[in-house]
Structures are given as structure tokens and as C-alpha cells.
Design goal:
Blueprint: H1 3-17, H2 19-28, H3 45-59, H4 63-81, H5 91-109, E1 117-124, E2 127-133, H6 139-152, E3 157-165, E4 170-177
The structure holds protoporphyrin IX containing FE.
Protoporphyrin IX containing FE binds at residues 1-2, 4-5, 78, 82, 85, 95, 98, 102-103, 106, 113-116, 134, 136, 138, 141-142, 145-146, 149.
Length: 181
């Protein structure tokens, strides 16, 4: 997992819960790296799961909820860092481009990035599906990223998990435009 995911996660924890919580997570997680990450390095995704699990324990917030909040936060980082990927005119075209364009470009920049497969289908003007597949089981992070993207495009949406297979390795997501949140 790329270091940017770790540095952004720890920054979010610091902003929301303070440095003491960051320190507690690093102290209690027995991480491979002792909590030192650079944004371009590559680290074991197990460390990320340990840290999210620990934060969930400390703050009594379920892991899926934490991953969604983190996804939304992570989206604004990606948007600022890679504005070229944000040129699509609307949310559905943007989401449609993750698998065909954005993540393949990410792989050119970082050949060791571990990315999900994310087949998209635009059903009609109001509904699309995204088929998440990854051994890392991070569909809740994906939902947070989609929420961040929806905000960016000023589009209110409802995101639902339609089917979940293999303990979250394969998740069909449905995105519906709505007038209200
Ligand atoms: C709504 C839009 C997006 C969604 C839903 C999405 C989804 C995901 C998910 C779920 C992961 C975690 C890895 C996994 O599950 O196997 C991931 C990783 C990543 N994505 Fe995306 N992504 C989006 C947009 C972007 C954009 C705009 C960029 C810009 C460059 C980007 C770059 C990355 C990077 C660098 C990683 C980390 C790879 C690693 O840890 O090795 N993504 N993405």
C-alpha cells in the first residue's frame, strides 16, 4: 500500500482526535515501520488495518464508518494532488474513468501500487453500478471516495452495497442520484 494512504490517514487522525491518539495508535499497534511513512514509499497494508482497528477500539467507532470518513478525506487529497484526473464533466463520467483511466495512470506513476478492479456501468442518467474487486476488502473506503467525488461535483447521491461476496473481496455498489442527501 502506498505511503500516501498512511500519511493521509495519520493526518486525519491528528486533525480529528489529536496527536495523543496518533501516538497511542503507533505505540500499541506493533507496526512494521514504527509509524514512519513517506508518501512515495510502499508499506504492508496490514499496518493500515491494524491502525484503523486500533482507532475503532479507542474511539468506539465501527471500522466501516472510519473507512468511509477516511475515503472522503482522501478524495480531497487526491483531487488537490492530481487535478488532471478531475477533468471529467460530471460524477458518472468521472467514476466511469477510474478503472479505464485513473488507476491505470496511477500504476504508470507507481508500478507497485495495489489497486482494486472497479468495473463501471452507467445504467441511465440517474443510476450507475461499480463492481469493486480486491483482496484488500476496502469497499467502504471506496464508498467514502465516491462520497468525496459526489461532493466535488455537487451531486447528491445514495450509495448502496447490492451484493457482497467473498467476505468483501467482491462488492457491487449502486450509485443513485438524488435531489437531497
Ligand atoms: C471516487 C474515486 C476513486 C475510488 C472509488 C477509488 C478506489 C480506490 C480504493 C478502494 C483503493 C484501495 C485499494 C484496494 O481496495 O485494493 C484505492 C487506492 C488508491 N487509489 Fe483510487 N479510487 C478513486 C480515485 C482515485 C484518484 C482520483 C486517484 C488519483 C491519483 C487514485 C489513486 C489511488 C492510489 C494512489 C491508491 C493507493 C494504492 C496503493 O495503496 O498501493 N484513486 N483507490
Amino acid at each position: 500500500m502506498k505511503g500516501i494512504v498512511f500519511t493521509e490517514f495519520l493526518e486525519l487522525v491528528e486533525n480529528e482526535f489529536g496527536l495523543e491518539v496518533v501516538q497511542q495508535i503507533i505505540d500499541e499497534c506493533q507496526l512494521d515501520t514504527e509509524g514512519v511513512y513517506t508518501s512515495v514509499g510502499t508499506y504492508s497494508h496490514k499496518d493500515m488495518f491494524k491502525m484503523v482497528g486500533k482507532l475503532s477500539e479507542i474511539k468506539e467507532i465501527p471500522v466501516p464508518a472510519l473507512l468511509m470518513v477516511f475515503g472522503e478525506y482522501f478524495f480531497s487529497t487526491l483531487k488537490d494532488k492530481y487535478p488532471a484526473f478531475m477533468e471529467k464533466p460530471n460524477l458518472f463520467d468521472f467514476l466511469n474513468s477510474i478503472d479505464d483511466y485513473i488507476h491505470p495512470e496511477v500504476l504508470k506513476l507507481y508500478p507497485d501500487a495495489e489497486l482494486p478492479s472497479f468495473k463501471a456501468k452507467i445504467k441511465n442518467n440517474a443510476e450507475m453500478t461499480l463492481n469493486y474487486k480486491s483482496s484488500r476488502k476496502l469497499s467502504d473506503l471506496a464508498i467514502g471516495l465516491i462520497k468525496g467525488a459526489a461532493k466535488h461535483y455537487n451531486q447528491n447521491v445514495v450509495i448502496e452495497k447490492i451484493t457482497v461476496e467473498n467476505d468483501g473481496q467482491k462488492v457491487l455498489l449502486q450509485v443513485n442520484k438524488t435531489k437531497f442527501k
